[in-house]
Write a structure and sequence with these properties.
- Helices cover about 70% and strands about 0% of the residues.
- Helix 1 packs antiparallel against helix 2, helix 2 runs antiparallel to helix 3 and helix 4 packs antiparallel against helix 5.
- The longest helix has 27 residues.
């Protein structure tokens, strides 16, 4: 059993960590490239990242390069989530295995659907992102809950705040802005 001060990961956890790191790294790199290749200035505090995956910019310029980077990011993320689902399915020792498999598969579907251009298939894209974020949020809740017995109450609370505040704030703002 891991102590409260240091978490020791079992060897089978390494593949899951590497896949999650790949997911984060791919998104950081490809979304950054999508921002850089956007045909005009992209104020990310003003526009959602979905704008990067539109066929034209806000001002009407063709947005092929940014769209391509955004879609590659969504597709690779969907593939990684599908691989994670299979890995959790095969790993009999994983806690909350069924929840993780289902949430990873739902997230993969969300990533694939979210790759649909926001300006052409608005509702399809919105449903895809909602499915993706909702399932990733659920997966994060499962992981945090698993950590609760082995981390301090303070660290667990900080983890919850880091997870809940941005997601719930974004969701509330999205609903208020898009009513």
């Amino acid at each position: 059993m891991a102590s409260k001060n240091k978490i020791k990961f079992k060897p089978y956890h390494i593949k899951f960590h590497l896949l999650f790191y790949a997911l984060v790294l791919i998104n950081l790199i490809l979304v950054s490239l999508a921002i850089l290749s956007y045909r005009e200035h992209f104020p990310f505090w003003k526009y959602p990242f979905s704008t990067l995956g539109e066929t034209v910019t806000v001002s009407g310029f063709p947005n092929d390069n940014s769209l391509f980077m955004f879609n590659i990011s969504m597709m690779l993320s969907g593939i990684i989530m599908a691989i994670l689902a299979i890995a959790f399915l095969e790993e009999k020792r994983a806690r909350n295995r069924v929840s993780k498999v289902v949430l990873c598969l739902i997230s993969a579907i969300g990533f694939f659907v979210a790759s649909s251009p926001h300006d052409i298939h608005r509702m399809q894209h919105i449903y895809g992102t909602a499915i993706m974020f909702g399932s990733l949020w659920g997966l994060s809740v499962v992981f945090l809950t698993e950590l609760k017995p082995i981390v301090s109450k303070k660290m667990f609370t900080i983890g919850q705040l880091i997870l809940q505040v941005p997601i719930l704030s974004y969701a509330v703002l999205f609903v208020l802005i898009h009513r």
